[in-house]
Request: fold
Amino acid sequence: MQTDRSVDGKGRPVALLGIGEATLSDVCQAAEVDTPLGKVVFKLTAGGPAGQVTASNLVIDGEDLDGDTTFGTAQIGRDASTLDRVDGIRGEPGKFGLQAGDIEVVGVKSHAWPATGGNFRLKGMRVSVDLDGTKCF
Reply:
């Protein structure tokens, strides 16, 4: 477990997940922001009928992860400071860590803060910015 901090200093508990190779059937990432015009939702979607989304050296600071998942060479509960599947990514000593050589996720739903990857392939990517738009779930 780690703590991510927003610009206003508020902390959020997250799990640091380091994944060597990821294959996802659908991706939807959204952020909701209050503006003088009203609630604005920025949303990025990919995958679905267009094909699978892939990423390598993926790092997720996640609050939760829900979906049908297959891990290859998973290590769950490893000390976060010893994670070594993604170069340069280490958690804090004594904190919970999870890493996998590869992962396949179908129907994923996750609340994550940063999600970064060395190489993303987003088939069918769509970006939208909508007043009073809807988030992913």
Q: What stands out?
A: The chain has no helices and nine strands. Residues 2-129 form one domain. The chain has one domain: 2-129. The chain has a mean pLDDT of 85.
